[in-house]
Fold this sequence. Notes:
- The protein has helices at residues 4-14, 17-28, 33-40, 44-56, 78-86, and strands at 31-32, 60-65, 68-73.
- By secondary structure, it is α+β, with helices and mostly antiparallel strands.
Amino acid sequence: MDSLLEKAEVLKAMAHPARIRILEELTRGVKCVSDFEDFLEMSQPSVSQHLSVLRSLKIIDYFIDGRLRCYYLVNPLIPEIIGALKKELDPLPAPACCPVTKKGTYPGERRQH
Length: 113
């Protein structure tokens, strides 16, 4: 994955709850379409559509075992992204002052948007 555009496309493809869950499962090992249907509680065509999006960007791939398509991760960045999404993080501290002018102080608690 060389360009920022490719990285942005991967993140865009991941921006769906079902795809995140698929990728979480694939970080644990190879899965077949029927495995995804069970835990996602989706129809086979819906699961296949999500898998197709991930495969088109070379995030995942599959091999055929008899009548089964078995999917696995290809993109080495995915386990790191999934791991980061699972972390419980504290908010970043507010700045003490303006880094350019070195004047002024942050007036209080960080605002929540």
